[in-house]
Amino acid sequence: MRILTQSQVTRLLPMRECIPLMESALASLSRGEVVLPLRTVVRVPDGRGAFGMMPAYSAALPAFGAKVISVFPGNHARGVDSHQGAVLLFDREDGRIVALMDASSITAIRTAAVSAVATKLLAREDASTLALLGSGVQARTHLEAIALVRPIARVRVWSRTPAHAASFADWVRRTRDLEVAVCASAAAAARGADVLCTLTASREPVLDGGALAPGMHVNAVGASQPDARELASDAVARARIFADRRESLVHESADYLTPLREGLIAEDRVAAELGEILIGKARGRASGDEITLFKSLGLAVEDIAAACHVLERAERENIGLDVALGGERPS
Questions:
Q1: d(Cα 160, Cα 130) in Å, to the nearest integer?
Q2: Degrees (nearest 5) of the Cα angle 90, 91, 94?
Q3: β-pairing, 154-158 with 179-182?
Q4: Residue 254 CB partners (closer than 8 Å, separation 6+)
């Protein structure tokens, strides 16, 4: 079994390589090649966090496996990633465990890569202003990813902690040739944006429908449980909705389930899965004025696809630690 650290995974999974990996994984899902149970989540009794298990099998990948992860939103205040865990890979032919690798880095990179796939399929071709609601790890990876698929020239950022937004803006100025502005509210950040990403740990809406402009594309990323949402119901009601997977959407997304219960949207508001667009089964943006919304929930097949790529590169470049962990009969 090969063990790979956070820094090694980050090195072996550059965003430019991860985006096409996610396209392939989502297309495979929509072709029916993936076995993907809904995630199992155990709530920590004191309410500080949750523990999740996300397994997947894909006929298109050389290994199957699972991401085992904890999510503690309060970690941001401690300077620690909110997502902590590992991805385990098992050989598809004989079931041997072949890898254990850091899940925080895979989650951060593949989540933004999927948002880039959605932006590539749904945002206007000339989208150049990006709004980020949230200024943590996902803000950095989303800026990197979205800038690879659209000609981003301006960035607007908002955070519930202004100092965090200011720190993010300083990082942008040091590392990228982009115009960046810190905004006093989520609505102010959204104003004039072509692409908007919600990347918060909020359990209540941070943005209402009045902030969405015709032609905008929204990646709603931060909330992935049926009791947490980032968008007010009227915001969702203004948009044409796309999903990574319908089954996950109808079981796990308060951003979708709440306006559905309130009668503001119907089930047919969900236009397609991203994979259905990729394989030509559905179309994406219908007009320049349409508001498109991709509700990202995160799928285990994305983690496994990313991890398989990391392992293949690690073996080719002889990176990581090899340890014996069962799987062989004693002589």
A1: 18
A2: 115
A3: parallel
A4: 223, 225, 226, 227, 228, 229
Six-digit token pair at 268? 């047919």
Contacts of 141 (CB under 8 A, 6+ apart): 15, 108, 109, 111, 112
Q: Are residue 68 and residue 155 in the same domain, yes or no?
A: no
Q: Tell me which residue range forms the domain holding 129.
A: 123-295
Task: List beta partners, residue 273.
Answer: 243
Q: Which helix (H) or strand (E) holds 98?
A: strand 97-102
Give the C-alpha distances (Å, rounded to integers) separating 326 from 10, 85, 98, 168, 304: 27, 21, 10, 44, 21
Domain count, the chain: 2
- CA distance linking residue 224 with residue 243, whole number of Å: 12
**DSSP-derived secondary structure letter, 231:** B
Task: Report residue 326: phi and psi, to 5°.
Answer: 65, -165
117 domain-assigned: no
pLDDT tens profile 293-304: 999 999 999 999
Domain assignment present for residue 113? The answer is: no
Q: Note whether 172 and 248 are same-domain residues.
A: yes
CA-CA distance, 113 to 220, in Å (whole number)? 13
Give residue-wise pLDDT tens across range 165-177: 999 999 999 999 9
Tokens of 59: 């006929």
**Which single residue is written with the structure tokens 């941070």?**
206
pTM assigned to the model: 0.94
CA 185 from centroid of its chain's CA atoms: 23
